[in-house]
Amino acid sequence: MTKKSNAKTVVPTGVPDAFKPAQIAFVPVPLSLSRWLHSIWFSDNPHCLPSQDRCYPDGGVSLTFTLSDHSLNASVLFSTRTAPFVTLPGDALISIRFLPGAFTECFGIPAESLPRDAISSFASLHPNVSLPVNEVCAAPDCERVRILLQWLTQRLHQNSAVSEDRERLISNLATPLQHNTDIARQLGVSSRTLQRTCKRVLGLSPKELVQFSRIYTARQQLIYSSGSLADVALTSGYFDQAHFTNHFHQFVGETPAAYRQRKVSRFSNIKK
C-alpha cells in the first residue's frame, strides 16, 4: 500500500527538495523494520528533463535505487550539509531512508568510516554485497519495493542486532532545545564520552545531530506556522533571530524568509 504526499506533509529528509508531492509515493515502514528505517518512497512520475534538487541532512542515510534500461544501481547519501541530487530523464527511483546509525549497523560498516561526500556508490562501500538486480528489474512496479525490503530484511538478520546505544542517543539528541552538556548529564556520562560514543555509533558528533534537529524544526515552522522569524528561531532552539538566520542560510543555502516564501508559494500552487 502506498500513500501520496500532500500539501500538509513535510517531505522527509533525503527526498529531493524540488520533487512535487504528486511525484512522490510513500510506502509505510513495516513494523519489523521500524527500528532501523525512517521512511520509504519512490517516484511514480519520473522527470522528463534532467533536474538537480536539494536534500537536507538529518543524520540518517539514504540508500537510493535507480532503475533505468533494465539496470539497477544504488547510491548512498550521507552528508552533514545540504546535498545536490541529480535526476535523469526516465529514471525510476526507490529510496530507503535509515535512521541515524542504522545503515552502518545493518551492513556491518563502521559508522566512522562512512564517507561524507554526499553521494557515493553502494558497491564501493560494500563490494561483497550483491543487489537483487534480476529480481527487481523483472518485477512489476508494484512488487519492486517489496523485493528490496525482503533483501534488506535478510541483510539485517545476517548482520544486525539493534543497538541500544544508538536508540538511546537518538531519543536524547533528536530535539532542538537540548544542549550537549544537558544530554551528557541525562545519560550519566561525561561530555567526552558522549562525543566518542556518538562518533562510534552514529558517525556524527552530538552537536551535528542537534543542529540537524534545529534545522528540521525550523523548516517545519517556516512552512506551516505564521509565526515571526524571531518566534521560529526560539522554537527551533536558537538564542536570537540573527544567529538563526546566519546558521539557516549557511546550512540550507537561502535565508529563512526566502525559504518560507518559496515553499509556501509552491504549496499554494499545488492546492489550486
UniProtKB/TrEMBL annotation:
For this protein, the record's SMART domains field holds: HTH_ARAC
Residue ranges of every copy of the HTH araC/xylS-type domain listed in the record: 163-262
Q: Which domain of life is it from?
A: Bacteria
- Give the residues annotated as coiled coil: none
This one is known as HTH araC/xylS-type domain-containing protein
Q: MF terms per GO, please?
A: DNA-binding transcription factor activity; sequence-specific DNA binding
**Record has Iron as a keyword:** no
